[in-house]
Known about the structure:
The longest helix is centred in the C-terminal third of the chain and has 18 residues, at 166-183. Helix 2 packs across helix 3 (100-111). 44% of the residues are buried. By secondary structure, this protein is an alpha/beta fold. The chain has one domain: Alpha/Beta hydrolase fold, catalytic domain (Rossmann fold, 3-Layer(aba) Sandwich). The chain is built from ten helices and eight strands. Strand 1 and strand 2 form a beta hairpin.
Amino acid sequence: MSELEITNLKIKVAGNDIYLQRGGSGRPLIILHNDMGGSGWLQLHNRLARDFTVYLPSLPGYGKSGRPEWMRSVRDMALVQNWLIKELGIGSTNILGIGIGAWVAAEMATMCHDQFNSMALVSPVGLQPKSGEIIDQFLLSAEEYVELCFRDSSKFKEIFGPVPSDEQKEAWELNREMTVRVAWKPYMFNQSLPYLLPGVTTPTLIVSGSDDKVVPLSCSEHYREVLPNSRLEVIKDCGHYVDMEKPNELAQLLTSFF
Length: 258
């Protein structure tokens, strides 16, 4: 999809191999994927790589990255990601988290308030909704859940094909196993996080799709309430996977913000 030179890296952190891709040039930008794992180098990444050196790590237990047996929480995952940034030697950076990746980014920010120049949280989980509920994806097959994350099913088919491959379905199931391990009880939120985030003054952009059937808008509104230097943008006619369904609109928001 890209004419950029994409470099594949493997870095050992806490005794575990983390795989990541790097492309583009400019200021560093870390992008953390959603709860179904990364989907390769996408249109959004191409657009952002015009202005940034983009780093796409696979979170521990997702994709090719190793699965630490000791890891039992999203906060554990955030600690490893902070260590990864240190190993990359990139210093202060911008960060973009998507879905569970947004939760990881938020946890990282509470651990080191000055680490990020700015932070973007897209379709974030991690805070308990004040109204509505985060859908229980495990009542659905992996394919049904991923398709539900799109408002426009044609976008789902464009990215994953009319019928997702068996290899893709297996990858989704393995990634969901890791999600269960770190985010099951309570489901997809940390009861401590709303008390820790008010100390994070990092400029933060929160983005949600107007037709997200997976995570209620109240999650994003809750982030806006507790993060003192944040604003919320809602992209129209878009589902949960904003990064895949509306990549150009999201890229425009992000490049302007960062």
